[in-house]
Fold each of these.
Amino acid sequence: MGQLINGKWDKSSNFKTDKTGKFSRQESKFNHTISKNNPDFMPESNRYHLYVSHACPWAHRVMIIRSLKELTNHIQVSVVCPDMLENGWTFSKNHPPATGDSLYGLNYLYQLYQKADPTITTRVTVPVLWDKKKQSIVNNESSQILRILNSEFNELTGNHEDYYPLNRQTEIDSWNDKIYKNINNGVYLCGFASTQEAYEEAIESLFTTLDSLDEHFKTQEFLVDNEMTEADIRLITTLIRFDCVYHTHFKCNIKRIKDYKYLYAYLERLRTIPAIQSTTYIDHIKRHYYFSHTHINPTQIIAKGPSEY
């Protein structure tokens, strides 16, 4: 998978696990915000650019909020190829609708990181929120980009829909913490575990949380009250990928989402929302996971099913 070390691309680096065999996710390196009160990064139309993968759940959540907040004409997007091998994310156009790098014509995403900081040590991840004026990365942490797009361009677009309302933030944060730990990152803790003990700990937490969500949606339409919030946006991108990838590829195979009556109804309801439906690319999702994770699937054979996909 590779990473940048002191600004140089190292092809040999792979996903890291700790001494217990548990997958260890690195923190994002760029954490700037955009605000009318921030003289360095102010909200402007066509100043910022997103680099995303249609395969990646973290990038998908940002694409959903970009659509919901009517920012598609103000923040343009470059889409990487779903294949991520020794050079990391690439700008190959072999798998439409991958776009290539529409700003600089780069071959690899790591070159964009080098452009932002020639000496950086980091994993090269999506999404990336890029500032065309300063020629640098504003932010590469999806949860922070979600908040930026939710609130900081309202005066520009006239869209004041709020997916992180002040009076619901404590409840949303509680759901976010639980869902990130046990589901969003939990599927990776299962799939990238290098010991049986680490895998069994992760899968127990994953399915205990899925069971509780099924019970929650027995009486609730969304996670918080009766309207979609940031918590739903963060959850749905993992659920979309679950049956077609995580169930098999990451050994999350105790149940499918389809086996949960109320959780599956929630998934079906949300993925018909135009902002979610229009940003979901199952071909990219399946191609990326099965083809790119050669340490899990060395034959790179892409699973055909399930039938609904």
Amino acid sequence: MFKNMKIGLRLGLGFAVVVILLLVISAASYLRVRQINGEIEDMVNDKFPKTVHANEIIEAIDTVARLLRNGYIYSGEEQKKALDQIPEQRKIISENIDKLEKSIHSDKGKEMLKAVQSARGAYVGDQDKFLSLLKDNKKEEIVVLMQGGLRKTQTDYLKSVKNLIDFQTDLMQQSGKHADDLAGQTETLILSLSSVAVLLAMAFGWLVTVSITRPVSEAAGVAKALSQGNLTVRITVDSKDETGQLKQAMSDMVGKLSAIIGEVNTASE
């Protein structure tokens, strides 16, 4: 395999193989980390904000309920102060619902958001009845409304929002589990690739080393025999690289030395 390659080319090839293996490991690691990062970004930038918006809606609903109660209990300036804050809370709810409409894309999520909006309409309708009765100072009818329709629509409204929160929380847990699974798979993949890369690098390194050291060792043995005056040593040239060229030169040298010694012997005779 390596007999016809130059030694420099073999060493360069060995280095290239190691670099390629490192690139494969790096690319696999990078792609996996990007997948994990994508899952985390999805949780942080998409699913978690939705639960925040929904919780802000619940907080505003509770605030509205408290303001209605204060409007019923208080009178005069305190009553006006409580009732004047209701539009602000309704605005907070509307803004968060708008954000949810823009960020929810799944069919189930849209269906649940539609349920929230429907429940909100019913609850706002009962709020308006409450405010109308309060304006007319019909407190007995307000009590009936609070114990009946208003309580039910508020409960349904809160339940629909909590269902949406549970849905988004479940999606977050699924994303977290997927990210955790990806992390485990990435760890296994990197360990496997690293093990294979080490084995391949060792095998290739051994082949390259042997292809260089073995012929050099053979040439050294021939040189030693020649230094001891053994001109009958056999030199086998089996490659075209630098070691093969060295062996060929030594073979030519042995042939010439043998010819010279033969001529000297003839002259002596």
Amino acid sequence: MLRARILYFMILVVLPAASVTGCSQGRGAQLEEPPALERHGDRLTVPANSPLRSRLHAEAVELRTVRRHFVAPASVEADPARAARITPPLAGRVVRLLVHFGESVQKNEPLLALDSPDLVAAQTDYLRAKSALGQAERTLARQKDLFEHGIGAKRELEQAQTEREVAQSELQRAEIRLHLLGIDPGHLGEPLMVRSPITGRVIEFSVAPGEFRNDLSMPLMTVADLSTVWVTANVQEKDIRRVRPGQDAIATFAAYPGESFPGKVLFVGDLLDPETRTIKVRIAFANPNQWLKPGMFATVTFTETAAAEVLVPTSALVLVGDKSYVFVETGPFAFERRIVEAGEQIDHATIITSGLSAGERIVTRDALLLQ
């Protein structure tokens, strides 16, 4: 009788507990959610009941015509073909300055007067050669007269002719020397006038009256025509292939904020600077108002020739470490994670240089959800 009562009590206790346990397990099974994403290596599948389906958006990759840009630091230089460094033709003393710093000068206009011992020697040589020629011509005339009257010998006549020719050569040499110095043989005894070889402005000035200059390589001043100037850009080695003569370029200057100066690449240098790993690229700019001064700093933006590129929204790229990935659609809500090489960013898009072809479909929105 006692055993029956104990058994009945255990049934009353165990049955409700089992019922509660069974209900709990049923509710847990009902609360378990299906997987949002199925992974098989680099291949992903979004199940039919996944909430990701409503958030992902895929588009076909297209080729777009773009013009890429890159910038380089630069500085303004005078065109060497339009600049002249004025050096003394002879060692001597500056007796008079005829121009000042910043003045405009014309071609062949006198810049300064120089007095030199070598100038005196050149003038003396000319006078001596001229006198010798006169003497030789008088001797020749006398020998001709004697020969015609049968008094003089033919040998003496020929000797006089030779001496006259030598004297002529010496006079021509002396005249050429004076002309090279810019001296008119008809105005001897005057200081040497150093003249400007070009029309321009005096942009450098390093001489004073009374100075004696014996270094013929040291410039006294520099005259430059700044109606056209060069802007020389230092292009990095990695960008050399992206620049060529005739290419469009736009320069900006700190002195003129908000303004830009369009130009074209004149030429690309052939020597790479081993220290900076840059190459010189020169652009010619018209400078009618003389706004651009040699030595100014500038920033040059180069525009490449238009070309077809694979361009994708930047939101389609997923960066993991130092690698960029996109998710390529391989079927309905099936994707493959693929490594791509990302290039320049243009607005909200990025150029893909390798790893992706036009026509392929990729996830362009919420691609991070697949990572």
Amino acid sequence: MYSNNCYLSKDNVLFNLNDFNLYELDSNISTEVKKIMSGYKNSNSELTKYFNKQQERVVDETLKILKINVNNKCNLKCKYCYASEGTYNGESKEISDNTILEVEKLIKKFKTIDTITFFGGEPMLSIKKIKNICERTRKINEDISFFMQTNGTTLSQEGIKIIKKYNIQVTLSVDGPKEINDKNRVFKNNKGTYDKIYKNFKKIENHINFIQATYCKETKMTKEEIYSVNVNQELTHVAVNF
């Protein structure tokens, strides 16, 4: 409970990454927690009772967006990548089943949650985990919307089925037409990704609501030109983020 995985704000709101709980602390409790977070050993039973009671409380609020990092691994090797191929210089891994159970507990604590967004790494590499989360979430709240940010290169038949079943809205990463995209957005063998992205795009185009392009100094086209020819004219109605 009182490890370095806790963050205490200036307003005395404690966020515990161990159990994904939020606690509004009074001044006395906040002082004790600060001592414990700094290494002070405390066996105060009243403090334990306080947190146990708070854990049972349902937050009477709406959480707008819950973003879930389902993995930190990627199948691409983009030349401008700042995340070390999705690992962020850490170990390549995916969300555990125990963490999914903790996410389920977090969802239950809020009166409602508007949207859940899956990202990584490349979230489609953990499609079974995404399916598990969607199934559990739907049993809690049928109105939650799902979003996903993907590079569009790892779309399997199972992935298509899950996207359609749970109406997952997709943000697709592609940097423009083939000659621009394939300069930087490449597989680990340095082969361009555009052809694969476009092939997969056609399978789920009704679920794509954004195209996200990375604009860098090597890009010779303007942002407006990238927008106008992104993938092909079928996507000009889709907003592009830079």
